Amino acid sequence: MAHSHDNEGFPALLSDEVASDPYAFYRRLREERPLHYDGETNSYLVTRHATVSSSYRNPAFSTKNYEWQMEPVFGRTLLQMEGTEHSRKRALVSPWFRGRGLENWMPVIMRNVSTILDGLVERNVEELAGRFVSGTEVDLIAEFAHYLPVYVISDTLALPKSDTQMFWGWYQALIAFLSNLKKDPDVHQRGLDAHDEIRAYLAPIIAERRANPGNDLISALIVAEVDGERLDDEEIGTHATQILNAGSETTDKTLGSLFGHLLTNRENFEAVRDDRSLVTAAIGETLRVTPPSQMNGRILSEDVELEGETVPAGSWVNLVMASANRDERRFANSELFDLFRTDMDHSKAFTASGEHFAFGYGRHFCLGAMLAKSEMEISLNLMLDRFPDMRLADGFVPQAKGLKMRAPDQMRVVL
Ligand code: HEM
Q1: What backbone phi and psi angles, to 5 degrees, belong to 249?
Q2: Ligand 1 nearest atom to the CA of residue 360, by list position
Q3: Which of 138, 245, 314, 378 has an alpha carbon within 20 to 30 A of 299's alpha carbon?
């Protein structure tokens, strides 16, 4: 594929135009140019469902990009491993994210949701004591979605709650590093600093757990063994760092988007409130229409045919989940949040079935999908129980921000 002109009539991926409405850009690409080369980022965008699906499963789409996108701040994660190294290391961690491991976490999730919600309600009650109003205004993102995943994860790793402020600082720096398509040097440096700080923080904790293993995920990683394979301190530090990050920002953003969808068209909120069998659909549909992580990068290890053209080995290809999930070739009224759609099996929305790609697909399918599902289901059910009259704050319109990671940054509601 020759590139005589950059972008050829399409806005640049990093332009303000795309930032303000990436879905309009992706819609145009799906229709007019399903394989698109973006000059500024020197990357290809793949935007149709069928092609994103086959690309995830094609071994020529390597995850080498994580060597520079992730390794400097996380260490060598599962995401950049391939083949048997990947399957062996993943097998050491995965029991914790499925079946028995997850059941063990359920009470932890319950406890966190209640603590946060109680705190949130109490704070509002105190603030508004003496006023006879049925609802108070809160920012669900700043006061709820932001806390829950990081609390759950610090509990699973058995790290003190008092350290969550530090975790936020670190994960924001790491996610910014990961999303740094513009290659801002300050963002880059903050990511590297965060890496050093996390490792310095974790080193004595890992040493202590080696001596006295407990019930937590760090201890489990220390004692885990599959086919004689064990993890060293460096790998445990990497897993802990990745889990802290992979599980925080994504779940945080999805929770924000979930309430945005339900409350923007309040009949959706009422439908789910009055029929809890729709809770799973609400979360699945949120992930489909507004996946928090909007694209996954890959590097081609050989020449690949895509949409009738040959893309050369070594190319950087972005699989745009945010677009594939809205492909009108796959879903009817594809851009509409529809609790009742029949062309997505919501019971499979959290499995590697390829209905939508919010959790990726194929070998690197999200390890935390079931945990994320539990966090969101429990949160939503509890909120619906306690605040059946919840609505968006007057005049507030949710605004999604970001390109690689995208979600509203505020969700002002009246409880
Ligand atoms: C709504 C919440 C979440 C979303 C949307 C999400 C999204 C993703 C995506 C798109 C990938 C694949 C990346 C790629 O192929 O390049 C992934 C991988 C991964 N996720 Fe999640 N994630 C979520 C929650 C979590 C949680 C809660 C955890 C852990 C506590 C987690 C841990 C991981 C890990 C370890 C991988 C790498 C798996 C591998 O390489 O084999 N995620 N996630």
Answers
A1: -60, -40
A2: 10
A3: 245
- For residue 1, tell me if it sits in a domain: no
Kindly state if the Cβ of 250 falls inside 6 Å of ligand 1.
Answer: yes
**Can you tell me which residue has the tokens 């070739």?**
329
The reply to whether ligand 1 has any atom less than 6 angstroms from the CB of 247 is: yes
Nearest residue (by CA) to ligand 1, atom 2, is: 251
Q: Of ligand 1's atoms, which has the minimum distance to the CA of residue 361?
A: 15
Q: For residue 196, what are the CA distances in angstroms to 82, 161, 180, 221?
A: 26, 21, 19, 21
Single-letter code of the amino acid located at 230: R
User: Which tens digit of pLDDT belongs to each residue from 263-300?
Assistant: 999 999 999 999 999 999 999 999 999 999 999 999 99
**Tokens describing residue 30:** 């799906």
Please name which of 196, 98, 112 lies closest in space to residue 382, comparing C-alpha atoms: 112
Three-state DSSP class for 228? coil
CB of 366 within 6 A of ligand 1: the answer is: yes
As to burial, measured by CB atoms within 10 angstroms (0-12 exposed, 13-18 middle, 19+ buried), residue 162 is exposed
The CATH code of the domain that includes 207 is 1.10.630.10
> pTM for the whole thing?
0.90
Ligand 1 geometric centre to CA of 95 (Å) = 15
Distance from residue 3's CA to the centre of ligand 1 (Å): 34
Instruction: Give the amino acid at 125.
Output: V
Which structural domain range is residue 367 located in? 16-414
Q: How many domains does the chain have?
A: 1
